[in-house]
Amino acid sequence: MLDRFKVPPADQIRVSEAALRRAVTAIFEQMHLTPEDAALGADVLVTTDLRGVESHGVSNMLRSYVQSYQRDAINPRPQWRIVRESPSTATIDGDGGLGIILGPKAMHIAIDKARTAGVGIVTMFNGRHLGAAGYHAMLAAQADMVGMCMTATQPSVVPTFGAEARFGTNPIAIAAPAKTQPPFLFDAATSSIAANKVQLAARVGSNLLPGWVTDKEGNPIMTETPPAAVRSDYLLLPLGATRELGSHKGYGLALMVETLATLLSGTLPFGLDRSTGYKHFFAAYNIAAFTDVDVFKANMDETLTWFRETRPVPGQERVLYPGLLEYEESEERRAHGIPLHAEVIQWFGHITQELGLPNLVTLEQSADTRG
Amino acid sequence: MLDRFKVPPADQIRVSEAALRRAVTAIFEQMHLTPEDAALGADVLVTTDLRGVESHGVSNMLRSYVQSYQRDAINPRPQWRIVRESPSTATIDGDGGLGIILGPKAMHIAIDKARTAGVGIVTMFNGRHLGAAGYHAMLAAQADMVGMCMTATQPSVVPTFGAEARFGTNPIAIAAPAKTQPPFLFDAATSSIAANKVQLAARVGSNLLPGWVTDKEGNPIMTETPPAAVRSDYLLLPLGATRELGSHKGYGLALMVETLATLLSGTLPFGLDRSTGYKHFFAAYNIAAFTDVDVFKANMDETLTWFRETRPVPGQERVLYPGLLEYEESEERRAHGIPLHAEVIQWFGHITQELGLPNLVTLEQSADTRG
Description:
2 copies of one chain form a homodimer.
Chain A: E1 12-15, H1 17-30, H2 35-50, H3 58-70, E2 81-86, E3 89-93, H4 99-117, E4 119-127, H5 133-142, E5 145-152, E6 172-176, E7 184-188, H6 195-203, H7 247-262, E8 278-286, H8 287-290, H9 293-308, H10 324-336, E9 338-341, H11 342-355, H12 360-370
Parallel strand pairs in A: 3-4
Antiparallel strand pairs in A: 1-9, 2-3, 4-8, 5-6, 5-8, 6-7
């Protein structure tokens, strides 16, 4: 994550993983989720915050989920079902359930199929927001598989040369296990920047960088711009930003996600048919079906080490690989707590009061005395 | 394809598909390929030229393949074999055979598995150059499946902040059928630009654009530069070019390709172990296993039409979707011939003379009299 998104230390309050987990679980229970689903949803969000991916953790997403549950835009008790399946595939009707909770269930189906058939591919329609796609991909990695996850959402991104939004930020995640190194975990929007990172930049008062958004005519803004100078109806750019830098590739990858998640679940993109919700794609490749798991993991160790030991360009300390920084962040936050913006703590104060729940700060103090 | 790569009309000689196919087949036969394999290799190259993808057609690739066969770097009669398989997967040892010829065979295995298991995934090690990955992906689309194909090659691209090449241009291709619209066919390197497009720019005397290559210290060159001003040992940049524009995403996607193609075939990246060659990944998703094929194709028609009808930004004539321009180009070239650079025609003259074969211009004339 770019430093520009870090909450400035003066505005931070650190809370423990345990307290945050309890607060989030209690809030989800008040939204009429089963206790198991509430705990699962809390695990997805808190794991994401632990990894330092604030854009998809409690700060940005929880309030949006609560608002959606409160106005019945998400089904708290979805009767999801498999509408078609084969030895290695399943298509699921998500019945309007939240993706952070149905995602792990879909990935477990993919994992089970991969155990017997070699690969498991699951698509889902009638879905809602998936959260960090990387969380779901990691479930497969923990089962000695390569996991992939993608999601197609509401239009916010222009195609190359287009002046209208046609597809979502459509992220792609992949996870694979290593033996001793932190796992490979890539999770990124196929747009130049994730939509809620633009909101996050605004919250921490940081400029938008060249290549992130369009001007009012749909042209890429290729200079650094304060959030206030950008129209509220800006659109996002595909990865690559301009045709010359490769925006047709970001566009093509977004359409790849649309094909695998949306078209393969028998539906149309959200921009053409809102009634079928967001669509998701889950894949589990059983490593043992392709090669020896030990060989794979040892090779992954060697590969990832080789990447992180690449000589850096002058002025850069080191070369990373996807998942490394987030792994390190997660170790640090497990030990020292998760830094939340004062404004987020305030929101927790309001919502817990509204729902008649103990406040996050109280939970934190009781976690302190327990710990 | 960018206009900057088009062969200028004054330097063009048009040859018919039929003549080019016969010339290329005859050259491959002289390399000791079976007649079937020679015709298959010619089909991959000529189909690619018909689509206007010069970077992967006869102009750039055929001479390189011939040189490799002549110095025994490619095995003309590979004893390729499946080393491990499951209902939906196979891992293939390619025995040093050329990817443009083994690719279709691997994809047909994936398609057969997808017919019974729902999905077929095939990885291959000990491979050589795969040609246009999109060709192989299209084979699945022609069988009413979604096809994907990726290939991991020799290091030429730096990771974000890195000053050394660590991975290949590692392209990703995906193809899906529509009912009446030209199919969706995306095929692009995960680097900012394909390696041989830099060579092609040099051949047609065109500048390198910002974000394509590094300077000698590994920093992205972010200004337009004549090829002569760029060091011969330049390295390529990942899609996104700089960290701020998202090069960590291009890097992550390249590592995704490495994971699926290389690690899942039980091997190490080419940069760590040259002995296992290039690695490939083939996927076929049987549409009927997920949804009704008719529904999928009608939805694809509606989706692709919606994309191409997006209002363009001022100054742009229209919005495309991946595969559309190449489809149109292919209709035009089938009718009016394939424009080859005079220098390429000259090479054909040399090689056919060296191999004792009829020259391309002669074949063209005899095709004319036949036509």
